[in-house]
Amino acid sequence: MVEFDGLILAGGQSRRMRTAQDPEADKGLMPWRGDPLAAHACRFLRAQGAETLWISANRHPGDYAAYGTVVRDDPGHADCGPLAGVLAGLRRARSPWLFVLPVDVVRWPDDLGARLGAAARPDRPAYARTPDGPHPLCLMAHRDLADGLRAFLDAGGRQVQGWLRSCGAAAVDFPDADALVNLNTPEDWDRWR
Questions:
Q1: At 85, phi and psi to the nearest 5?
Q2: Which of 49, 68, 170, 184 allows an S-S link to 119, with CB 3.0 to 4.6 Å?
Q3: Would you give the DSSP letter of residue 146?
Q4: What does the alpha-carbon distance between residue 148 and residue 87 come to, in Å, rounded to a whole number?
Q5: Which of 102, 126, 103, 114 has its CA nearest to residue 3?
Q6: Strand, coil or helix: what is 60?
Q7: SS3 of 6, please?
Q8: What does R_g of the chain's alpha carbons equal in angstroms?
Q9: How many Å apart are CA 157 and CA 144, to the nearest integer?
Q10: pLDDT for 93-141, tens place per residue?
Q11: Cα distance between residue 13 and residue 4, in whole Å
């Protein structure tokens, strides 16, 4: 088992979750099954063995600080999407490995961290895939990949799967199609409540 830090990606704008009643919704802080999504993700990463928890959050940093150390996107990569959060986590990781999890993912396989850790190499991250398709931001990456990711972003790269392809990332298959469900919209929220 590799030693790893955990990174919860909560830096997005939650645009698809916004409603007339909640035009500034921040998914990671919304309660789901009694606790904010960030609390669920934090408990999962701790149970998986995360040494340190980081939260990539560009809004409400004081609220997210209850769950881990908040890292913000570097100003030079502020428009780079979730990979900016991954880069911020890789640059600050204390452990050699970083286990990344989006804040809006629920229903994790119990062996997610162990299997991703077994498939990852220092020069090759590993990400989860289910019958519904890839989950490229459920990944294990070595902190030595930070320079390559920065170069990818500086060259205009924004697609997570494009970066994963560029470093020959390994897909790890999980058979349950309902594993790693993302709560992106109010309809998703209602379905999985």
A1: -65, -40
A2: 170
A3: H
A4: 10
A5: 114
A6: coil
A7: strand
A8: 15
A9: 18
A10: 999 999 999 999 989 999 999 999 999 999 999 999 999 999 999 999 9
A11: 27
Kindly report the backbone phi and psi dihedral angles of residue 54, in degrees, each rounded to the nearest multiple of 5, phi listed first.
-115, 145
Encoding tokens for residue 116? 């991703």
Supply 69's token pair: 């150390």
- Residue 173: both structure tokens together: 């298959």
Backbone phi, then psi, for 133, in 5-degree steps?
A: 130, -175
As given in the structure block, the two tokens for residue 149 are 């990711």
- CB of 11 closer than 8 Å to CB of 74: no
Amino acid letter, residue 94 = R
Residue 37 CA to residue 105 CA, distance in Å, equals: 8
For 162: left if phi > 0, alpha if psi spans -120 to 50, otherwise beta; the answer is: alpha
Please report where in the chains the tokens 């908040």 appear, as a residue.
70
* Strand intervals (E) in 40-185: 53-56, 69-71, 97-102, 105-106, 126-130, 133-142, 170-173, 181-182
Query: Using one digit for the tens of pLDDT, what is the confidence trace for 23-72?
Result: 567 888 988 889 999 999 999 999 999 989 999 998 899 999 999 999 99
For residue 34, give both structure tokens: 């009694």
Which residues lie across from 9 on neighbouring strands? 56, 102
Closest alpha carbon to 99 in 81, 112, 83: 112
